[in-house]
Prior knowledge:
This protein is of the alpha/beta class. It has two domains: 5-236, Phosphoenolpyruvate-binding domains (TIM Barrel, Alpha-Beta Barrel); 240-267. Helices cover 44% and strands 13% of the residues. It is built from twelve helices and eight strands. α2 crosses α4 (61-74), α5 (93-105) packs across α6 and α8 packs parallel to α9. The mean pLDDT is 98. 3-methyl-2-oxobutanoic acid (KIV) binds at residues 22, 41, 43-45, 83, 179, 181, 202, 212, 214.
Amino acid sequence: MAVTIRDLAAWKAEGRRFVMLTAYDYPTARLLAEAEVPVLLVGDTLADNVLGYANTLPVTMAEMLHHARAVARGAPDQLLVGDLPFGTYQRSCADAIDNAVEYLKAGMHAIKLEGGGWVVETVARLTQRGIPVMGHLGLTPQSVNAFGGMKVQARSAPDRERLIADAHALQDAGAFAIVLEGIPRDLAAQVSGELVIPTIGIGAGPDCDAQVLVIHDLLGITGHLRGAAPKFVKAYADLGEAIVKAARAYVDDVRAGRFPDDAHSFH
Length: 267
Ligand code: KIV
């Protein structure tokens, strides 16, 4: 049965923890559906994890839609969330609505956008139009330049108060869930306890209602490429190493004349 935003609300009410993972292509979406991951995010981390950009800022709506369609073909029964990339909702609510509509036409069931105060009106306008919205607070990567780097946010008392107020404002505007990224554990616990909608943590400790990771981090690809993964990441596989080993073995076999052999030939 298809996962919907109503399931997430029910899971929060029941105290049942769940997960979200990023997915950017058809085979990954199919495999994550097979693993019964209920929520897939076509994240703007497509930029740095798949397209080779330095951060999430350069990725375009056209690039996101290309990958969103592939994920929708692979996992139509999961709850699919399309991340609005930088520049597609900052200018106006009209921009946000136009781009969110594109995502829903591409097979997404909801959209995600980053920020507090200034996006609340946009969230209200989207939800009034039947477009489910996931919020995102804390270390919001599209603000990397304003933050002066990827640093843990909301450490001071005024910043903590602002984040708590933003979380309530997003909930009141109709958001169905909020990602909490890169904030102190006790703050994430407080927000999760106060909200009726689920919080989805990443680098926010274990007390959120749900957890999200970037699939390339979980599979050990990013850690292999960058030499290390951030503190909040746990790699459950070493696919980076496995891919290099497999490709090296193939190179060696072909060079040595071991592949293709007769068993892999037509007669
Ligand atoms: O784009 C993304 O992958 C995200 C998650 C890290 C929450 O926003």
